[in-house]
Amino acid sequence: MLNYNRTTEQWQEFDRDHHIHPFTDPDALGKKGTRVITKAEGSYIYDSEGHKILDGMAGLWCVNVGYGRKELIEAAERQIRELPYYNSFFQTAHPPQIELSRLLSEVTPEGFNHFFFAGSGSEANDTNVRLARHYWDIKGKPSKRTFISRRNAYHGSTLAATSLGGMGYMHNMGGDNGSLLPGFEHIEQPFWYLEGKDMTPEEFGLARARELEDKILEVGADNVAAFIGEPIQGAGGVIVPPSTYWPEIQRICKKYEILLVVDEVITGFGRTGNWFGQETFAIDGDMMTMAKGLSSGYIPASAVGLKDEVFEVLNSGGDINHGYTYSGHPVASAVAIANINYIKDHQLVEKVREETGPYLQAGLQNLADTHPLVGEARGRGLMAALQLVKDKETHEIFTGDQDAAGTCRDYCFNNDLIMRGTDQSMIMSPPLTITTSEIDELLDKAKLCLDLTARDLGVI
Ligand code: PXG
After folding, report:
1. Residues in the chain with pLDDT < 50?
2. How far apart are CA 98 and CA 153, in angstroms?
3. Which pLDDT belongs to residue 1?
4. 41 and 93, same domain (yes or no)
5. Which end of the chain is more exposed for a tag (fewer CB within 10 A), N or C?
6. What is the pTM of this model?
């Protein structure tokens, strides 16, 4: 039995001595000591020192239904007793994964009726790469293998997902481009505020989308399998593309017969005020990635959804030589079903669209209008970012020792608010169950931490 009764110092010592953290400098963290999170309820997490912390990130963009929901807990408990594991490799299936597939065909955009399961967003994106190449091979176009993505995109951390992603520091782990596989190309991102302000947002959206056309012509349409994108880039800094961007991407993909893969790992399951980001931006994807909000992070689960036409081709192509031990895991599937039903029963998607989403975005816009550090507030539904700037006129950001977002993140941490600092943006994605009074608390704490940051930077 796990001993929950250790002191914070003991946890920190064992953590330092035995545990390697993702995306972390182990030596630096070991010296500082990790914060130990022991329990959670609703929109709050608690640490081993008894602090109650408002979780403005819903874990890591995933706890859509909030913490402690008995419906999900009971679904897991019941399923682990009934059938804790069985595989679906050898002509067998079990009720949870069959039922989850059916349920997903109801909540995903029209035409998505077939689902392949995995354990994480990264595995699902690897699946996309393998299935898209298989699709073109079956169609007699085996040279169509290259994936095109965007700089500063995040699609996961396996080798294929790292390569799909556009994070230079990830590509360069293991030497110069040491983690970048061949067959992956990148174009620039549609980040108007920092990269496009000499054009209107609409002009800039078109210009950035047209880089896809240039890249396709450079690589050769006969060599390109797919374009992949997050409707809103999440980890990259909640980058909301201008209104012209997605329609143009869509046009180009159709013109050159390129599959459009929509990575909905963050934007799925209500986050932007619709079930999926494809509805928010009128994107007509051919394949889609789901994870995080699929199970609200209670248990690892992910899925790839295929449009009917893509499935029909795969259906005619013989064996699909791909799969994971935990594809459609029964306990994960049972939790995902309970999670989707919770979202439906509590009308969380409508709540985000009509109430809490607009409320949060208006509060953040007010900070952008009034606070000297905030150049822009951007987002949709319950995902948002505050762009921290040195100069609101020129959009100049802080550099070097003046790390506004890092400073603000640390103040948030010490004032019991989880808000992420990414580049020079503060980003948030609270549980979809957050109330307006909890949003008030989030906004008040954010303002306090921005004030403290501005004071440290000598701005006020
Ligand atoms: N696609 C997107 C759009 C994601 O945001 C993944 C795929 C990969 O999912 P897994 O389950 O393999 O982690 C993600 C994950 C951050 C951060 O810093 C974001 C993610 C993961 C880790 C850190 O915001 N998103």
Report:
1. none
2. 32
3. 86
4. no
5. N
6. 0.98
Distant-in-sequence, close-in-space partners of 17: CB < 8 Å, separation ≥ 6: none
Cα(97) to centroid of ligand 1, in Å?
A: 23
pLDDT value for 345: 98
CA 121–ligand 1 middle distance (angstroms): 7
Domain that holds residue 400: 35-65+347-456
Residue 113 sits in the same domain as residue 151: yes
We report the CATH number of the domain holding residue 266 as: 3.40.640.10
Q: Which one of 265, 296, 302 would you pick to mutate in the ligand 1 pocket, going by the greatest count of ligand atoms within 8 A of its CB?
A: 265
Contacts of 170 (CB under 8 A, 6+ apart): 157, 162, 179
**39 in the same domain as 90:** no
| DSSP letter for each residue of 284-331 | --SEEEE-GGGTTTSS--EEEEEEHHHHHHHHTS-------TTTT-HH
- d(CA 393, ligand 1 centre) in Å: 33
In a domain, 430, yes or no: yes
| Ligand 1 atom nearest to 157, measured from its CA | 12
Q: Do 186 and 239 fall into the same domain?
A: yes
Distance from Cα 252 to the centre of ligand 1, integer Å: 27
Ligand 1: residues with CB < 6 A are 60, 120-122, 125, 154-156, 230, 234-235, 263, 265-266, 291
Nearest CA to ligand 1 atom 17: 235
Residue found by looking up tokens 């790469």 in the block: 129
- Answer whether residue 288 is part of any domain: yes
Same-domain status, 51 and 176: no
Q: Is residue 163 domain-shared with residue 272, that is, in the same domain?
A: yes
- Model confidence over 183-225: pLDDT tens digits? 999 999 999 999 998 999 999 999 999 999 999 999 999 999 9
pLDDT for position 149: 98
Q: What is the pLDDT of residue 354?
A: 98
Closest-CA residue, ligand 1 atom 1, reads: 155
The pLDDT assigned to 375 comes to 97
Kindly report the protein residue whose alpha carbon is nearest to atom 20 of ligand 1. 235
pLDDT recorded at residue 314? 98
Which is nearest to 460 in space by CA: 376, 373, 401?
A: 373
Question: Could you tell me the distance, in angstroms and rounded to a whole number, from the CA of residue 225 to the centre of ligand 1?
Answer: 23
Which of 390, 373, 392, 356 lies closest to 447, judged by CA?
373
Query: Residue 155 Cα, ligand 1 centroid: separation in angstroms?
Result: 6
